[in-house]
């Protein structure tokens, strides 16, 4: 995580106008007016076994667990593991993340052209979903990219997630594939050329400048895809990035290059096959989320 943040920071610092999102949030809503989840009640129970309320959850996350709130630090690892699902399910964010208002479709300055195939659409995040990249020197890596950003050249060490190429082969037979990344184009496009040298897997590549930047977060508004969202799925390690379209999102555990036995991509394939038969993938995904 540290490395990724370092990468992001360096990319942002070095990027100047080319790297920072060109499109300011079209909503124009500041944090104070944002629609932060309204259903958060401090006494609301997030998980039942053990019973942990929103307030306790926040305390545990902030490292302030104590006997006064039941001494539930014991469960912190379990809660950490489930954090993305909990955030997604309950709209609970323990830091400063607030949700900007989603722009109207009519106000979008960028939209993909109409879909030419009758396939469902699978939107894939890049960093920590398909690969892990770092600006720090790595002993083990799969590719070393030389990425120019705002006149500076950076070495980017890339580690492919296990099963990556098999996964791409499998899903590209089933779906229209779109990569939607909050990373800058000069880095991501170079990497995607390596993942798809024949340009037969990714139908579209969408980069940071199509995201809505809100503070240090980049939100992926699926409306820019110009697709039928009842037939569109996004796979991302950050539920925040698809917050406008939670029912379209499948959360995948983040990959940080240090787990050779990682099989998250492999595990996804049966679910993605199953969703092809769903009349509305959002109902299937919501049902799955409710049962987690
Ligand atoms: Mg990611």
What does this structure look like?
Mean pLDDT is 77; it is low at 1-41 and 69-74. Helix 4 (164-172) runs parallel beside helix 6 (264-275). The protein has 292 residues and is α/β, with parallel strands linked by helices. The two termini are 25 Å apart. The protein folds into two domains: 2-18 and 102-291, Rossmann fold; 36-90, no CATH class. A five-stranded parallel sheet has the order 8-7-3-11-12. Strands 4-6-5 form a three-stranded antiparallel sheet. The chain is built from seven helices and twelve strands. The chain is 29% helix and 19% strand. Strand 5 (143-149) and strand 6 (152-160) form a beta hairpin. The structure holds magnesium ion. Magnesium ion (MG) binds next to loops. Residues 115-275 form the FCP1 homology domain. It holds the Pfam family NIF. InterPro entries: Dullard_phosphatase, FCP1_dom, HAD-like_sf, HAD_sf, TIM50. This is FCP1 homology domain-containing protein.
């Amino acid at each position: 995580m540290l490395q990724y943040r370092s990468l992001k920071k360096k990319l942002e610092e070095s990027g100047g106008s080319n790297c920072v999102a060109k499109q300011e949030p079209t909503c124009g809503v500041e944090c104070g007016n944002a629609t932060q989840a309204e259903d958060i009640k401090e006494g609301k129970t997030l998980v039942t076994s053990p019973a942990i309320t929103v307030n306790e959850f926040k305390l545990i996350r902030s490292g302030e667990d104590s006997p006064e709130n039941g001494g539930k630090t014991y469960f912190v690892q379990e809660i950490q593991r489930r954090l993305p699902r909990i955030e997604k399910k309950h709209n609970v964010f323990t830091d400063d993340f607030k949700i900007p208002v989603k722009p109207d479709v009519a106000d979008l300055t960028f939209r993909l052209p109409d879909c030419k195939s009758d396939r469902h659409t699978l939107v894939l995040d890049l960093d920590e979903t398909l690969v892990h990249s770092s600006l720090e020197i790595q002993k083990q890596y799969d590719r070393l990219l030389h990425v120019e950003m705002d006149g500076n050249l950076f070495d980017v060490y890339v580690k492919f997630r296990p099963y990556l190429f098999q996964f791409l082969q499998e899903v590209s037979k089933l779906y229209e594939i779109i990569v939607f990344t909050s990373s800058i184009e000069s880095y991501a496009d170079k990497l995607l050329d390596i993942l798809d040298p024949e340009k037969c897997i990714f139908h579209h590549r969408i980069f940071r400048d199509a995201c809505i930047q809100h503070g240090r977060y980049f939100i992926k508004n699926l409306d820019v895809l110009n697709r039928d969202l009842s037939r569109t799925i996004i796979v991302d390690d950050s539920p925040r990035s698809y917050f406008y379209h939670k029912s379209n999102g499948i959360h995948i555990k983040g990959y940080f290059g240090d787990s050779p036995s990682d099989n998250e991509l492999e595990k996804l394939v049966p679910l993605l096959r199953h969703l092809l038969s769903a009349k509305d993938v959002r109902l299937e995904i919501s049902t799955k989320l409710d049962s987690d």
